[in-house]
Specification:
The protein is of the alpha+beta class. The protein is built from 9 helices and 10 strands. Strand 6 (97-103) and strand 7 form a beta hairpin.
């Protein structure tokens, strides 16, 4: 799933390629991705793009004197830029294409979604806060006013484990499964540690890891073409998705805990005092 750094890089890319250009066609290919109907998709046509914004993991294309096109790429969605869009109408039900946006220049972008779990979401709204997922977002962790005191206040009394708290979009916007693993590894903390149990020193360490990990990922992604962002994300990860590989910090083997629809990765030496975390699903499989 694209998270804050990748969506921020897409925002930069689209700002350069879309701003000041007119949208001439918006072609829905998979109707299921469209979550709003008023205003219609055609309300975007004939308007220039005024700006591109990011709200957590949401991309927001703002048109001049027109509506916003807001999208959430979900787990398997992606944006593909094309300097020259194919001629002719795309055929519904053929391949992963979900939505096509065409500019007056002949360029544009496609939104695609792989797999069978269709969660890619597109909204056309007068105000991005009309999108429920945007309205409930917590603060952006890279905002100038997101200081350590604000972070500590968010965690005060939070009874959940750190992994779940970091992924909660209503608590902190933009962090998902991959970067929560990376942040906790950088902070040398167990994903199962309770947020409310952090000392002042641990809170400071987690805050620094949060800001540094996301800032470094944004910088790595900046200037990279949209089609290469997925590979760039994977190459920069130290523990997430690297089960069985050596930890780049201490050399211990990266371990995994599996859940019904996801998994987390961590280093026992760096994060849990050398003790493997219980993986109940794997334990059941081994019985």
């Amino acid at each position: 799933m694209p998270e804050l750094p990748e969506v921020e890089a897409l925002r930069d890319f689209l700002t350069e390629h879309l701003t000041g250009r007119e949208i001439v066609r918006v072609l829905p290919v998979a109707i299921s991705v469209l979550k709003t109907y008023d205003p219609p998709l055609t309300a975007l046509e004939g308007h220039e793009v005024a700006a591109v914004h990011r709200h957590g993991k949401f991309l927001d294309v703002e048109t001049a004197d027109g509506p916003h096109l807001v999208t959430h790429l979900a787990r398997a969605g992606w944006l593909h830029w094309r300097d020259s869009l194919p001629s002719g109408m795309p055929r519904p039900g053929k391949g992963p294409l979900a939505l096509r946006v065409a500019l007056e220049t002949g360029a544009g972008f496609d939104l695609t979604e792989a797999g069978t779990q269709k969660r890619l979401a597109v909204y056309v709204v007068a105000d991005p806060r009309q999108v429920p997922g945007v309205a409930r977002l917590g603060p952006d962790p890279l905002a100038d006013d997101f200081d350590q005191a604000r972070f500590a206040a968010l965690l005060d009394g939070e009874r959940r484990q750190l992994k779940g708290a970091l992924r909660d979009q209503s608590l902190i916007a933009g962090v998902g499964n991959a970067y929560s693993d990376e942040i906790l590894h950088a902070a040398r903390m167990s994903p199962f540690k309770l947020a409310a149990s952090l000392t002042d020193e641990e809170t400071a360490r987690l805050y620094a890891a949060l800001r540094d990990t996301l800032t470094e990922a944004v910088e790595r992604s900046r200037g990279i073409a949209a089609g290469r962002l997925k590979a760039e994300k994977k190459s920069g990860l130290r523990v997430h998705g690297r089960t069985g590989e050596p930890c780049p910090v201490c050399g211990d083997t990266v371990r995994e805990v599996s859940f019904s629809d996801s998994s987390l990765q961590y280093c026992p030496t760096c994060q849990t005092g050398g003790k493997p975390l219980a993986d109940r699903r794997m334990s059941r499989l081994l019985k």
